[in-house]
Design brief:
This protein has about 290 residues and is of the alpha/beta class. Helix content is about 45%, strand content about 10%. The two termini are about 20 Å apart.
Length: about 290
């Protein structure tokens, strides 16, 4: 009763309340002021994606499910269903397909259920990112990430190693004409960190659409989106050809983030909620003052 549970993905709120977390509320991710900088004076890359291929992660988590009867087939089916229905909660898909297949999730331990769900989300995300990359071979895409990309990146894709999040990534965002964003499928509605980081670093972001974009941004002025990998070639070509439009989106998004969506704003909201919920419950009056 004295716990506040902020959650960045709205669809998980009912599950948390079911487990007794009464004060659960939606709190999107936010921007770090350390990323704030102007874009590069010139561009080193046309189109980039920075991220994990999920190859090693899928192998690891699928391997952990090896002792669960029927897990292999369930992972395959559920990952495909989640890939095709990216706005659905992964937990709902797991329950639906396990029921169809006769697998009784109640017989699994909590750790086994979590492991199985993780394997499904990772495999679905791996397929999604592979499809996105394959659609952009004609654009000589630059990928910064793990060696797993070598398994399915096409010949004209340029592969690079990882970049450091704090010391290298902001400059990369700012020196790329079109930065791509592929949200993990554990997040059917939420925004990931890149949606905030790229504009703050002076980089243009073409992101897959998520409902929460409309909560945080003016989607007509402050974002550029695609709904399916099939749209990417046309969208990337359009934004590469319109420099001034990219700059307007960057500036508008950065202005909104700095004004309303830095982590200091999120902390202020948590403090405000704690004050409203718990001030009268403090046993020690001094504790009440600390919470304020």
């Amino acid at each position: 009763p004295l716990a506040i549970t902020p959650v960045w993905e709205r669809s998980y709120e009912p599950y948390l309340r079911r487990f007794g977390f009464q004060h659960t509320f939606h709190l999107p991710l936010a921007g770090d002021p350390a990323f704030i900088r102007r874009g590069s004076s010139g561009f080193s890359y046309r189109t980039c994606f920075v991220g994990d291929s999920m190859t090693d992660a899928v192998a690891k988590w699928s391997g952990l499910c090896a002792e669960i009867p029927g897990a292999g087939r369930l992972i395959e089916q559920a990952a495909m269903l989640l890939y095709r229905n990216r706005d659905r909660n992964p937990l709902d898909i797991v329950r639906e397909l396990s029921s169809r297949s006769g697998m009784d999730l109640r017989k699994l331990t909590k750790d086994e259920t979590l492991t199985l769900s993780s394997a499904i989300v990772l495999e679905a995300t791996r397929r999604y990112r592979r499809e996105m990359v394959n659609r952009l071979n004609d654009f000589k895409l630059d990928i910064f990430g793990d060696d797993g990309w070598r398994e399915y990146a096409l010949p004209d894709t340029q592969l690079h190693g990882w970049v450091d999040y704090y010391t290298e990534l902001p400059a990369l965002y700012g020196s790329t004409m079109v930065n791509l964003n592929s949200t993990s499928l554990q997040m059917p509605t939420a925004l990931n960190q890149r949606v905030f980081d790229a504009p703050l670093a002076g980089g243009f972001l073409l992101t897959d659409y998520r409902e929460d974009l409309g909560i945080v941004f003016d989607t007509q002025r402050e974002t550029a989106t695609f709904s399916d990998p099939d749209e990417l070639p046309e969208k990337v070509a359009f934004y590469l050809a319109h420099d001034s439009l990219r700059e307007r989106v960057i500036d508008s998004a950065r202005e909104k983030i700095v004004a309303e969506h830095l982590y200091i704003h999120r902390i202020a909201r948590i403090i405000s909620l704690a004050r409203r919920l718990f001030r009268d419950r403090a046993v020690n009056p001094q504790l009440s003052q600390v919470m304020i």
